[in-house]
Write a structure and sequence with these properties.
The protein contains eight helices and 22 strands. With about 425 residues, the protein is α/β, with parallel strands linked by helices. It has three domains: about 5-65, OB fold (Dihydrolipoamide Acetyltransferase, E2P), CATH 2.40.50.140; about 90-115 and about 245-430, Rossmann fold; about 125-190 and about 195-245, OB fold (Dihydrolipoamide Acetyltransferase, E2P) (Beta Barrel). An eight-stranded mixed beta sheet has the order 7-21-22-20-19-16-17-18, sandwiched between helices. Strands 1-5-6-4-3-2 form a six-stranded mixed beta sheet, with no helix packed on it. The protein has a six-stranded mixed beta sheet with strand order 9-8-10-11-12-13, with helices on one face. The longest helix has 18 residues, at about 85-100.
Amino acid sequence: MTATEVSIADLSHDGRGVARLGGKALFVTGALPGEHVRVRITRRHRHYDEAAVVEQLTTSPDRVVPRCAHYDICAGCSLQHLAPAAQIAAKQRVLAENLERIGRLQPQHWLPALSAEPWGYRRKGRLSVRWVEKKGRVVVGFRETNPQFVADLRRCEVLDPALGPQLGALGELLGTLDAARSIPQIEFAAGDAALVLVLRHLQPLSIADRARLAGLARERGWAIWLQPGGIDSVQPLEAADAVELSYALPASDVSLAFRPLDFIQVNAAINRAMVARALELLDPQPHQRVLDLFAGLGNFTLPIARRVATVAGIEGEAGLVQRAIGNAARNGIDNARFISADLFADQRNATWAREPWDAILLDPPRAGAQQLLEYLPQASTRRVVYVSCHPGSLARDAATLAQSGFALCAAGVMDMFPHTAHVESIALFERA
């Protein structure tokens, strides 16, 4: 197919360059705004086309050399070729565009972006494992840009330093196991003092396999846990692997324990900064009552509890609720209560939903909180802090809050996932 020259005008939500060709949008993998490139069309659609760069004719000043040797094939990161500061600016534009286009809103004040060290930041995630017959060995990594394949990673620059440089060694060890062909994935979780690898295995492990894994754990300083079935089947390989995972929020004098498969924020430094900003925006006072929705382990709830009369954390996953209760006791906090409730079901008649709350913090998943906002916040609530992992759902919910009499006072992005197009943000709403 003949190559075509185009000029890149923008960056898409998934990090591809955007041009116009033949009256249609053209999404160009690896291209950056301001660049002129020669491209080859790879896929055609009714309203847009996709392309790959054949030749770089001009180069953006924001272009950098990707650090990762696997960047061209691994789909774990999509923006390593863009300078970190430019990545953050692009995410801020995505947030602003969503708020304006979907919510018909602009914040009264833009918050400075939260950023931290962009390498070695990822403390939680899932790696695919696959025995590849043609290679005669196990490969470990994230999916390739073609998701049918697993990227053969020898190291990963964004994973916790205790694991990232060791992926090649991990794959080699897994390839020696009798069960090499029956391990589809490994989940990893790093606390402040320990790293746990959870091996999902589809057949029982032999005594020899267990010994090899135990040896690897001792050599690398990891703890190995096994998952032969569902989440409830997860258990340490040996007694020595039964380590406690925890992380601290020093500014609030809080320490939170968690299990390897529990949800936690993947970026420890950004999480600390995010909690601090949430508290700053929420401005909790000693006499106030605060509601924390999608509370998880108590990541926001317990720091809030240090500053208010009472706080309630509502969470849909019963296991996380139990961990949050334990974390309150761990920290000597007795003014926080945790309730298990499906926040995507109608909870308007629940006792907690009918209580008066001075302020609300919510940190919903990608779907947002549209159902909740049908009955919350109530008239007593003057302030809402919304932590978002999807700018589209935030913008939609911001419009709902505006209809309920809340002004969008401030908003900004948080670079929770450097080198990806993922946009995490935070917004403050106050009753007008």
